Amino acid sequence: MAAFAEYGQYDAVGLADLVRRREVTSAELLEEAIARIERVNPSLNAVVERMYEAARGEASRRAAGPLAGVPFATKNLLAAVKGVRLTAGSRFFKDFFPPHDSELVRRYRQAGLLLCATTNAPEFGLLPVTEPELHGPTLNPWNVGHTPGGSSGGAAALVAAGALPMAHANDGGGSIRIPASCCGLFGLKPGRGRMPVGPDRLEVWFGCEVDHVVSRSVRDSAAALDATAGPEPLSVHRAPPPARPFLEEVRTAPGRLRIAFSARPHMPSRVHPDCVKALEEAVTLCQQLGHEVREAHLNLEARALAKAFFTVVVSEAAADVAVGGRLLGRKPTPEGFEAQTWLVTMLARSASAQDLSLALRYLQGVSRQVAAFFEDYDVLLTPTLGQPPPPVGALQPKGAEAAVQRLAASFSSMLLLKLGGGIDGAVDRVFDFIPFTPLANVIGQPAMSLPLHWNAAGLPVGVQAIGRVHGEATLLQLAGQLEEARPWAGRRPPVSA
């Protein structure tokens, strides 16, 4: 089967248009994608499961749907593909094969996407780097000594390397925007209620988690949103229907926006100068484009916000472990999980129902505070991350800290955990890296990472834009304008297909 050598010159919308006009076949695109995945994956370790034969079967049939014939990968976390192993990066789930597609996967198929692989993620998506013990670390195509971010690091690595035009990702605390920033991609986290989560859940992480894609072009993200967004019959949260297709918004001028900017972290962090510089350049560009831009801060209680968000995350992670035990018919034990994951479940068991309720109420108060801020602004610009992509392993515990954590997890000993300093060090390292992204998950507002800056070391450093409630259209309008003013899609990393 002949491949399509010009594949890398097109985004997903462009490839789908070629298929529609019969200038190339779905099978040709798929074979080129497979060749490219196999070319870069030995350097990146981004792929968990290959679904090549099933995709070839789909490609042999007449293409239908707005993105028909475009090769695509789903993240090996939450996105259930019937009969394809779904590990969530965990040894405990290494033999789990979902009995049905998730609703989002069903919509991807309906859109005509060719599901050819699943991508690497950290265990349960808990870390902002992609380094699961089960599958090994995924590496950044811009510098393989550094992380591509997480938890959608496998997806971002494949797209940045040019193997796929876009790939599925999900975001509970920044897991679309973090790897987009680390890999020089566009990453939009839609607002709460915009995307489906069924059929097995009504919401994930109390509504903080949402699925979408990472992509090189803004219009691919918009087209994928058009193809998959919309409520389910039992949706807990429902975003209003868009006024027009999101793809049209990318080509629509946003008018003169009121844009706030701030480099003040929302959670405890020492923000790196590279991240501040990326923000400053974006501010200058927005001013040149005619927007009203001023510095303004949310004035959040950083430590209290971090503690409340952490309480919610550990509670949900512990519940995932317990539900997994019932699903697989065996008791979860420390041997089935990474030490930090098991310690998280221990911390959750030591917290009370009151602790969780108080954390949720606190986060609701933060949502009200931020909503009041957005009465005066259309968009808030911040750095996406507190640091440029760190070296692989930099966020993991080491030495005595790691040894004590492994011992505490093995014996499920809260005493040992406390004697070893708890996991405060790990938590501090994580929030030092991601002090800006979790807020949008807490408040449920849309947010995106824009690849507008590369530092002196040649690593991408993203800029985040948070929009108003249900404000995806405005974000896409602004993103389209910025992409046109400072194009990024032509940049290629050292590891490139």
What would your notes on this structure say?
This protein has 497 residues and is an alpha/beta fold. The two termini are 19 Å apart. The radius of gyration is 21 Å and the shape is globular. Helices cover 40% and strands 12% of the residues. The chain has a domain at 9-253 and 470-485: Amidase signature (AS) domain (Amidase signature (AS) enzymes, Alpha-Beta Complex), CATH 3.90.1300.10.
Mean pLDDT: 95
CATH architecture of one domain: Alpha-Beta Complex
Task: Tell me the radius of gyration.
Answer: 21 Å
The name CATH uses for the topology of one domain is Amidase signature (AS) enzymes
Give the neighbour order of strands across the main sheet.
4-6-5-10-11-9-7-8
Order of helices and strands: HHEHEHEHEHEEHHEHEHHHEHHHHEEH
Could you give me the name of the CATH homologous superfamily of one domain? Amidase signature (AS) domain
**Number of E strands:** 11
Question: Could you tell me the strand content as a percent range?
Answer: 5-15%
- Helical residues, percent: 40-55%
**Mind summarizing the main beta sheet?**
8 strands, mixed
CATH class of one domain reads Alpha Beta
- Shape label: globular
The assigned structural class equals alpha/beta
User: Which stretches are low in confidence, meaning pLDDT under 50 for 5 or more residues running?
Assistant: none
Helical stretch tally? 17
Distance between the termini: 19 Å
